[in-house]
Amino acid sequence: MARDDDWRLQGQERYLTGVTLVRRGYRKYPENPEWDHDHCEFCSAKFMVGDQPDFLHEGYCTEDEYRWICETCVADFKDRFGWALRSEVVLSDS
Length: 94
Hints:
2 helices; 6 strands; alpha+beta
């Protein structure tokens, strides 16, 4: 668990306390397909579609896919923020 003086804490409790986070592969924000990347709400790691090796391609997001959080920050802050975690359900085409 992160300490109270962790540099990554910058007021996120106002909008991330008690939310459900979904683990999924990163995809463009459905409400704005021109939006091609996001950043972790805590450490600013970059999420992006494609094969770029320096970017994250999966992590956790809010159910509306607006806010993204990397796996490291989820592990560090999940108890502090009281997140419910779930995995994306992938339905087969059968």
